[in-house]
Automatic annotation (TrEMBL):
Keywords: 4Fe-4S, Cytoplasm, Iron, Iron-sulfur, Metal-binding, Oxidoreductase. Gene3D superfamilies: 1.20.1270.20, 3.40.50.2030. Its main location: cytoplasm. Hybrid [4Fe-2O-2S] cluster binds at residues 232, 256, 300, 393, 421, 446, 481, 483. Its EC number is 1.7.99.1. This is Hydroxylamine reductase.
Amino acid sequence: MFCYQCQETAGNKGCTKVGVCGKSEDVANLQDLLIYTTKGLASIVMKAGKVCDKVYDRISNNLFITITNANFDEDFILDAVKKTMAMKEKITNKHQITDLNEVEAYISFDDEELKRKAIEVGVLNIINEDERSLVELVTYGLKGMAAYNHHANVLGYRDENVDKFISFALTETIKKDKEINNLIDLVIKTGEHGVAAMALLDKANTERFGNPEMTEVDFSAGSKPGILISGHDLNDMEMLLEQSKDAGVEIYTHSEMLPANYYPAFKKYDHFHGNYGNSWWSQNEEFEKFNGPILMTTNCIVPPKKNNTYLDRFYTTSNAAYPGAIHIEADENGYKDFSAIIEQAKKCQAPTNLEDTKIVGGFAHNQVLALADKVINEINEGNIRKFVVMAGCDGRSSKRSYYTDFAKSLPEDTIILTAGCAKYRYNKLGLGDINGIPRVLDAGQCNDSFSLVQIALALKDAFGLESVNDLPIEYNIAWYEQKAVIVLLALLSLGVKNIHLGPTLPAFLSETVVNFLVENFNIAPNTTVEEDLEKMIG
Ligand code: SF4
Ligand code: SF3
C-alpha cells in the first residue's frame, strides 16, 4: 500500500504498511482499485455523452468511500468496485463504445483477481513526481467535492455541471502524456467547481432546514437514553429526529454534526438535546461513555479499540462503513429505517455527563449578514481590527495545540471565523465578544466555509474594495482530509491569497507544486504562534 492523502500520513511521507488512520493494507489497496475503476467509468461516461443520474451518483459515492476515515470495510469496497464494473459494462454496450483504453477496458467480478489488481494500481504508478502530485491534488479535491455533492443530491438538489466536471476531471487524470500546465489549470477548475458544489449544498441545506441562526448549544447529558449522530449528513439527521420523536429517547450530535443545532428545522424537535463530546479523534473514549447507539453518517470514524464496549451499538450508513458495525442502507426512495437504533437506545442507560459547557454558534452567511451593519460599524470604529479565518479540520497530532495557542494569543480586537471540526481547538476558550459580536463566529461544517467566502465577498462590496485580499481578513487554515483540500482549492480559485496552511503542508505536494502555490498564491506553512501572529496581525 501507499497512501499519503491526509495530514497524518506516516512521517509526513506516506503510509506503507498500515494507515495511521487504522486502514489496513487490503483496504487501502481496494480503495486504490475503486478509484482506478471509477476513473475508468468516468472516462466511459465522457465517451457516452449522456448518462443517467445513477451513474453520477455511483461516481460521487465511490470517491466519497475513499475519503480518510469514511470506510474501513473490505467487503463494502469490493461490492462498490463490482457495481462500478457492471455500470462500465452496461454503458459500453449500450453506447457501443469500442475504442476502450486500458483503464476503461478493465472488467472483473472475481474477488481474487480484483485483489490482485488492487495491488497494481496505486498512486506510485505515476513515476513523474510533479505529475503525480497534481493528479493526486485534483483527485483528492474531487473526493471532497463528491462528498458535498452527495449530501446535496440526497436532499434532491443537483448541479449537472458539478457531476459532469467530476467525470471530466477524473478522465483527465488518466490521460497519457499529461502536460503539467494543463494539470495546473485542472487544479484551479477543480476549485471553481468546488465552490459550485458547496453553493449547491448550502442551497440544499438552507432551503430544506432554514438558515442557521445564532444558537446556544448545550454540551451536557440529559437523564434519558440517547442516540448520538456524527458526520455531515443533515438528511440522516432529519430522518433520525423524525423517526425517534415519540420514542422517549434524546438525540445528541457529535463532532461535525454539531452545526445541526443551528438549523431552525431541527430545533423544533423537543427531544433534540444538544451536543455530546468533541472532535472526531476523541470518539473512542466518548463513545464508551455515551452508553447508547451511535450513528456515523460519514467520516470521521476512528477504529474502535480492541476491548471496546460499543461496537454492538455502532451504526454506519451511506458511504461510511466499519467491519462489525451495523450498516443501514436507504431504500429505493432514499428512506432509511432507523428503528433498530431507536429500539436499542430504549434499552440503554443515559449518557455519562462529560461537561456542562455551552457554546454559541450558527454564524453562517445569513446570520452574519443580518448583523452586517453592526459588524461594519465596529470595523469603522476601530473596535474590530481583523478577522482570522481558522476553518478546516481537527486532528490527533500534538502539533495542533498550535491552533489553541494561536486563538488564545490573538488580540482582543480580532474575530475568528470558523467552520469544520477545526473549531474544537478553540470554541470553548471563552474568548468573549466585541460589543456583543462573539469573537468566535462558527459558520458550521467544513462545507460551510462557503459561508465564510460569502461573508468576505459581502464585506468587500460594503467597503467598495476591488479584491477580497484587500479586506482585513487573514487565513490560518488547518487541514486533515480531502474535504479540506476542496475548501483550499475553492479559496484559491476565488483568488484568495496569503493562506497559512498547517499543521504541515500536504505530503502529496511536490516541490514544484509548492513553489507554484507560493509564487501564485503566496501560500505559506504555519510556523510558530509568535511568528505567525506577527505576520498576520502585526
Ligand atoms: Fe495514512 Fe491518511 Fe492514507 Fe490513512 S488516509 S492510510 S493515515 S495517509
Ligand atoms: Fe473534520 Fe473528519 Fe475534516 Fe468536515 S470530521 S472537517 S476532519
